[in-house]
Amino acid sequence: MNSAPPEMPLAGSNQEATPTSPVAAPIPVVVAGALGRMGAEVIKAVLAAADTTLVAAIDTTPGKEGADVGLELGLGELEVAITSDFEGALCASSQAVRQAGPGAGAVLVDFTHPSVVYEHTRAAIAYGVHPVIGTTGLSPQQLAELAVFAEKASMGGAVIPNFSVGMVLLQQAAAAAARFYDFAELTELHHNRKADAPSGTCIKTAELIEELGKDFNPLQVEEHETLAGCRGGQRPSGLRLHSIRLPGLVAHQEVMFGSEGETYTLRHDTIDRSAYMPGVLLTLRRVRQLTGLVYGLERLL
After folding, report:
1. Which one, out of 97, 203, 212, 281, has a CA that is 20 to 30 A from the CA of 176?
2. Is the same domain home to 178 and 260?
């Protein structure tokens, strides 16, 4: 990536040029799921930012091994070959950046699949590569195990169910509103290629609401489902979560509170995946300063 030019004295001034502090090296970024829709957006954002550089592209799409990721994504030749060797890419990226500790090291951005995200996160920590995980599907137990592993390794990492600042604002508003309502249900809507349900974002929203420590949706009538699951999934707090999957959707969430004579609805709509990129870049820039694993973008804002 191009670095900023050194500072020069003002024209016509009598000042002598003074040495400037060295420009920090760009953050080395490994993208897993490089040919996916989110992975492609991340690569574009990394290339556009002055302080990040793409060092590895991981993807398991058949027939793409060794191909230039830039050519595959229509971005021009980048001289970064696609590899399906996840641990090999981590090892090479870690060795290329010899420094260790806070403020140094390569960063992994993972948008792959729930079935492999735990192993990917653990491997990144083990190889000294800071994980930034956008893949959802980690269980509370897995998150706890990864947090312990990262703490022992003094390794910064971030698990971010949703990189949208707007979604963080919705979650904070929902947590505040929960003080005033005893009835609430959450609905998340995604494209029909999303593998996990409910979404990690919806679960995170429910968890933030539940930090209040109260129960929701006290039983008003003995319910009977004539179609199993039509009332959604119910958490121990009583909150109900509903998932919708349709082509044409990107990512959407609605939190509806109800009380006598009124409803209060919060909704966030992601129209394009580019909305996530400011949050991705913010996390990339901050994760190397951490010494443990954080969960949720709101922990970094």
Report:
1. 281
2. yes
